[in-house]
Amino acid sequence: MDSFEALRKKHLADVRGFTAEAIERLSWSRDRVLEEQTLRLRKIVAAAQQKSPFHARRLGHLEASTLEVSDLAKIPPMTKADVMTHWDDVVTDRRLKQDEVNAHLKRLLSGEETNAYYLDEYYAAATGGSSGKRGLFLWDWETFVVTTNITTRMEAQQDLAHPPVGPKRTAVVCAGSYVHASRLLFPSMVDPERDVLVLPANTAMRTMVERLNAFQPDRLIGYSSIVEELCAEALDGRLQINLQRISTNSEPLPQQARDMALQAWGINIHNQWGSVEIGVAGTEGNSYSGMTIAEDFLIFEPVDEHDQPVSDAAQADRLLVTKLYGQVMPMIRYELTDTVVLDGGPNPDAPGYRRITEVKGRADNWFVYRGDTKIHPMIFRSILGQEPHISEYQVQQTPAGARVLAMTHGDIPDDALKRALIRSLAEGGLTNADVSIEVVPDLPRHPETNKLRRFVPLS
Question: CA-CA to 30 of 20 to 30 Å: which in 107, 175, 242, 272?
């Protein structure tokens, strides 16, 4: 078995070997993009039919060799619940078992295991998403190669046109553990000469500022809410760095954050959108006119609440996404519940691609405690989202800590979870936190929309 460092080195070499092609694809015409979708759709459906018992039952009525994108409407949507209920049958590698992959993540989280690659070729990540319902997803080797290039190709394209001057240093605020996909993905640089500083999202803001001042990055990548806080630190004079590029991810980006970045450094923010299930799917270019979606690797169907298609300019209730690369866990018409607006008009950043001009996913709220101590929800998500027996949860802020409501399907190590949360909260600046975990049959939802608010700050 290769070490994690050796495998990651090989993986990054493959990422960099694909970058030139990934950039070239941005110049494709709309017809060329649609042609690629058809070719890849036929291959991915054929592989799913042959290797996944779940998809063999679901897609057996289709002739993969003559499939058209319009034929997707004949396939019922696929949900996170489908994946979790039929996990062992969804995957295409018969060696893979949900319980064993969960055990791998548990060992990673505890430090018992250090190789984030499962069977030396797969990356597993658990996520609660915006709803709080746990999902377990796999990336194969190709998935990481492609999604890393989707994430970075517009930045790399700009570097080719205007090579950066001076030290090349990128600071990345992400999860602290490889059990969360942000830790694997966002510190991955296609430029091997670029130095990287990884700052776990639960780092206290004062410490984060000190480390950034010492590192002096020219680029910053991070969760939108944390980047906004860092903009405020710069405007207040505590953060003293000279940024040339900022990229945000994982949360909705408010206009206020863009305004603050312009005021602090004279630059706008490049926003990104995606999910663990499909990787990064949309990236903002230099026109700042919306996030170009990677339609050379993904098919997006904006639909209403009845799964009927909506026009590009209309607001979709959800997206049905078909992933055209990476075969280990086929995602064919997979339901994403983010509310988005797609624009099919002229795209100055990539002429053959549509853009997402608005994402109305729920922004996670910071918890603000005594002494203006601010705690990011990643502290809770990175611990609770990795417990395989927690199916859904809600975190309610209390004056001195948090009350966790959890729906479970088996016994959970609540004492160990509480200790982990208290320790992580202390690292984030809230010492002696009072944390409780309660197992409940149901979680409180909005009376009209039935949506779950996952993190509830004090009013």
Answer: 272
